[in-house]
Specification:
Elements: H1 3-12, H2 15-26, H3 30-39, E1 49-53, H4 59-66, E2 70-75, H5 78-90, E3 96-99, E4 112-118, H6 127-137, E5 138-148, H7 158-175, H8 185-192, H9 204-213, E6 217-221, H10 225-228, H11 231-237, E7 243-248
Parallel strand pairs: 1-2, 1-4, 2-3, 4-5
Antiparallel strand pairs: 5-7, 6-7
Helix pairs in contact: 2-5
Length: 249
């Protein structure tokens, strides 16, 4: 089985866990926090045509739909899309939700006003190809917003690895769970060692890649933790802070 197929197979089994996670976000402060953060980087008008890459169980289509935007959400996993359809309907929104590989998009050139993704780029076997595709389907002047973290850099950085081990022991004693709440933690850890971005220093890697692709403007916020995570999220993931990489075509 090729790496991309293994990635797809793994995330098919994680859909229910992640769907429960976004329900907690939608019912808590994260919902408004993400709206405000994203709103700072999008044009003020409503009804933007937005592509949500790696939509998972549909968090962004729901909150951006509430803001009056036309959202198309894609994910390589059928189970994630099935959950997304249920969640979008439950929250009274409408979105086009498609099973699609974000590294091989089925859209015409210059189709979207904005492209967003959250915690997806680290999972890709060929992120450079993905960024090229996203550049292709983005309209001139359109915005790209990438939210992610160096989730598994601790597997390659000895000092960070020791800190991560100590933090995880504390989390298990306190909460009876690991830092990452996956359905299959061991399988995820093995797979993560093979992923292209796991050992990269980000967001610098992303900025360099986007500039080479021809984006006219790139920027980053290295730590948006306090903007979008609650106290538990900060405790769990403080060693791998969420960052924002942005670009304009």
């Amino acid at each position: 089985m090729e790496l991309n197929e293994k990635i797809k197979d793994y995330w098919e089994g994680e859909a229910d866990v992640y769907s429960r996670g976004i329900q907690e976000e939608l019912n808590g402060p994260a919902r408004q926090a993400w709206k405000e953060l994203i709103g700072e980087y999008l044009p003020a008008e409503r009804n933007l045509k937005i592509l949500d890459v790696g939509t998972g169980p549909g968090f962004f289509p729901i909150i951006l739909g509430e803001e009056g935007h036309q959202v198309i959400g894609i994910d390589i996993t059928e189970n994630m899309i099935a959950c997304a359809k249920e969640n979008v309907k439950q929250w009274g929104q409408q979105a086009q939700l498609l099973t699609m590989d974000c590294q091989n998009l089925k859209f015409e050139d210059e189709s979207f006003d904005a492209i967003l993704c959250r915690n997806i780029t680290w999972t890709l076997d060929d992120p450079k190809r993905a960024y090229r595709e996203w550049f292709r389907v983005l309209k001139p002047g359109g915005s790209l917003l990438v939210f992610d973290a160096c989730w598994y850099l601790h597997l390659f950085d000895e000092s960070l690895g020791q800190k991560y081990k100590e933090r995880e022991e504390q989390i298990r004693r306190k909460y009876g769970r690991g830092i990452h709440a996956h359905a299959d933690e061991d399988k995820g850890r093995v797979l993560s060692k093979r992923l292209y971005l796991s050992d990269k220093l980000r967001p610098q890697w992303d900025l360099d890649c986007l500039l080479k692709l021809g984006f006219s403007k790139v920027f980053a916020q290295r730590d948006i933790t306090d903007r979008v995570w609650d106290e538990l999220g900060r405790e769990l993931n403080g060693l791998t802070p969420e960052f924002l990489v942005g670009a304009q075509k």
